[in-house]
């Protein structure tokens, strides 16, 4: 039997040198694929019923909000009829109407600005950069803060009116406003004096982080004048239980 | 090494796509559980208010013909909305968050948002009430401005609501105070349940 010459031995060594990483890579790919399969199975087992429960609760919330709105209308009607009876009740009704308007409990229409906020259309593979190219709950709270600072009379995010007890809540990658689940794009309506509102949003010191992420990472952010805007009334619970007037 | 790097890159890529997805199905079971708890709380508050409002509508309907309705129901409604709109001084149980050290207006806005999410009915910072249209800005000399009024540190944030719920929401592991402690390392944070707090009206 012929012994391999020096060239053949060199080929064999280089072949083995490539085989090891190739096997390792194959193993990693297979392990990743297997893990992904297990994740999928786990996701099906636990996430499917949990997702269904979340959707069911959201649907129930929509029904409850509709019932609440109907009851509020009924009470308003009874009260409006009663307010015709005496001067005292008329004065009381006027105070209630004024306060409801100031608290965000009545719909508002008028001119103002619309702010569009959306995830970048193209994102980087890097998790750090990805974080900068998507919308966060803090972006929405910063925008709402800028709107109030700019003198807004009414603010709504995707048809959810912002009131004194409103919160923007983020769980995982899902955002919730007034208990309503939302996902991008976000349309924020701010009704008020347009020049003042635009001035607040165009101030370079305001929303620096959002503007920079828009320029560098493609985060969608646009502010524009708009007329005939609508902000619906707040439809959630007033939740006045623990706080008692002094 | 090359294969190892490729393997790591492949895993990173998978995770990036996972984070990017905004579909509920791709949330973790832990996130979904938290989401469900929040939704259930909101729905429970709605059901309580519907129950209360049904009784009020029935009582109002029955008494409107007597002419006695409007004052009783109207005054009750007015009182409720005055609290909701931060027009009245209010008292009740809740929590106190004391902050002593460097802090900024964005963090304060986040804290208020977190308290509201946990069900705070009324909030005041250094005895200045936070209203429905309140806004935060950097104050002069490193302070915080609320509705244009400078609030110098240390800050006392008082929130009226269920003290147990508010306390747990703020102090839970990974919660907002835990995050603040990591970011503002030289700032002292003290959260306590309060049996009774007095908050002024919005000025």
Question: What features would you describe in this structure?
Answer:
- The complex is a heterodimer of chains A (246) and B (203).
- Chain A is an alpha+beta fold and 246 residues long.
- Chain A has helices at residues 6-82, 87-103, 127-133, 137-149, 194-202, 208-217; strands spanning 108-118, 154-157, 160-161, 168-171, 174-177, 180-182, 186-191, 220-231, 244-245.
- Chain A has 6 helices and 9 strands; from the N terminus they run H-H-E-H-H-E-E-E-E-E-E-H-H-E-E.
- Chain A has a 5-stranded antiparallel sheet. A 3-stranded antiparallel sheet of chain A has the order 4-5-6, covered by helices on one side.
- Chain B is of the alpha+beta class and 203 residues long.
- Chain B contains 6 helices and 8 strands.
- Chain B has helices at 2-20, 29-63, 69-84, 105-117, 163-171, 176-183; strands at 90-100, 122-125, 128-129, 136-138, 144-146, 149-151, 155-160, 188-199.
- In chain B, the strands form 2 sheets. In chain B, strands 3-2-7-1-8 form a 5-stranded antiparallel sheet. Chain B has a 3-stranded antiparallel sheet with strand order 4-5-6, with helices on one face.
- The longest helix of chain B is centred in the N-terminal third of the chain and has 35 residues, at 29-63.
- Chain B starts with a helix and ends with a strand.
- Classes of the chains: A alpha+beta (246), B alpha+beta (203).
- The interface between A and B is large, with 94 and 96 residues.
